[in-house]
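Inverse folding, one chain.
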């Protein structure tokens, strides 16, 4: 079995060299629309911290926090200590966690487009509820719907991008999701900076603008072609080949189509996928898949991005300065993602991973030195 597996791997590598195709307009449009899902995720991350630093928003939904914030007799770090405010921010992530478990079988059984459309509709409903919120319950329900959209979007969009992209451009195009996420964060910071003085309804505009990319994602998802991989997996091989020819811009897709068909047959033989990934032969990949994103989040970057304006205010920044500093943070994140996209297919994933890790270590040590 081991020898057969190695031989099969060698055949697939040789076949991969025979892949034909180019960057077609169909792929470009599909990836552009699908990557909008990332921009909504980023927008929701970036918008929350700015909104929770706006006095009209706090006065309406969290009057206790509003009074503390404008009181000079309490530590800055304690002013935002409120369970309702914590529920507003954390409900999005909790809903995203739960909905991602539901999104997985939807993506597998009904296709990637189904998850993208479900995510877009959920985002749209969440944005409408937030912009029209008159009480805390309505506000949190909107956040939950946004979280559901994140669960479906994060499940379907990266997979869609990977399966639509030509092999030689897959790294860069798949990072469109990350680029869109960072662009969403930067846009949210800019929006908050512009709406902070639109009292008392500026926060509604900040939250409501999420409806624009959500609508684009929903409509785009309805018009996008399904990925060839998904069609083949669901027994629609001929249709999958036609889509593959269209998105590659050539009829010479035999090698890639054969690899997709073989991968689909292998996937369909696995009856218990979650049990299968726990087998010893899959543990290295499982550990890397779980630990790498977990360790990245444990650096604290998500908390910084989420609460940036609030964090800057607790450090003594004024309201405008805190939002402006958040804009700079978002801009650096966006520009660094552009550099990664330009170099990932040329330098490889491993070099970018190592260089990113070194940069994070240096920055963490430097912050520690500054504290003294």
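Residues assigned per position:
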């Amino acid at each position: 079995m081991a020898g057969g597996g190695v031989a099969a791997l060698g055949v697939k590598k040789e076949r991969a060299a025979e892949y034909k195709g180019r960057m077609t307009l169909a792929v470009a449009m599909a990836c552009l629309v699908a990557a909008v899902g990332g921009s909504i995720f980023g927008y929701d991350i970036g918008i929350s911290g700015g909104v929770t630093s706006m006095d009209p928003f706090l006065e309406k939904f969290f009057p206790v926090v509003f009074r503390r914030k404008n009181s000079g007799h309490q530590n800055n770090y304690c002013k935002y200590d409120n369970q309702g405010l914590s529920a507003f921010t954390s409900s999005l992530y909790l809903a995203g966690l739960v909905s991602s478990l539901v999104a997985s079988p939807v993506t597998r059984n009904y296709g990637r487009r189904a998850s993208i459309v479900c995510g877009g509709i959920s985002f749209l409903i969440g944005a409408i509820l937030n912009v029209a919120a008159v009480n805390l319950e309505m506000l949190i329900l909107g956040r939950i719907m946004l979280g559901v959209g994140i669960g479906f979007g994060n499940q379907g969009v990266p997979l869609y991008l990977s399966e639509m992209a030509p092999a030689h451009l897959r790294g860069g195009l798949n990072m469109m999701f990350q680029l869109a996420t960072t662009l969403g964060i930067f846009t949210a910071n800019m929006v908050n900076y512009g709406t902070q003085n639109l009292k008392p309804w500026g926060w509604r505009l900040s939250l409501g603008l999420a409806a624009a990319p959500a609508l684009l994602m929903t409509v785009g998802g309805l018009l996008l072609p399904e990925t060839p991989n998904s069609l083949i997996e669901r027994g629609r091989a001929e249709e999958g080949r036609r889509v593959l020819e269209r998105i590659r811009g050539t009829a010479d897709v035999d090698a890639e189509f054969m690899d997709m068909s073989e991968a689909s047959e292998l996937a369909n033989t696995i009856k218990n996928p979650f049990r299968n990934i726990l087998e010893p032969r899959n543990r290295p990949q499982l550990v890397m898949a779980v630990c790498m994103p977990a360790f990245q989040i444990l650096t604290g970057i998500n908390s910084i991005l989420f609460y940036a304006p609030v964090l800057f205010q607790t450090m003594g920044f004024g309201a405008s300065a805190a939002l402006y500093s958040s804009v700079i943070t978002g801009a650096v994140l966006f520009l660094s993602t552009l550099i990664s996209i330009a170099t990932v297919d040329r330098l490889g994933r491993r070099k970018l991973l190592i260089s990113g890790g070194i940069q994070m270590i240096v920055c963490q040590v430097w912050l520690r030195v500054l504290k003294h």
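Confidence is low (pLDDT under 50) at residues 1-11. The two ends are 59 Å apart (CA to CA).
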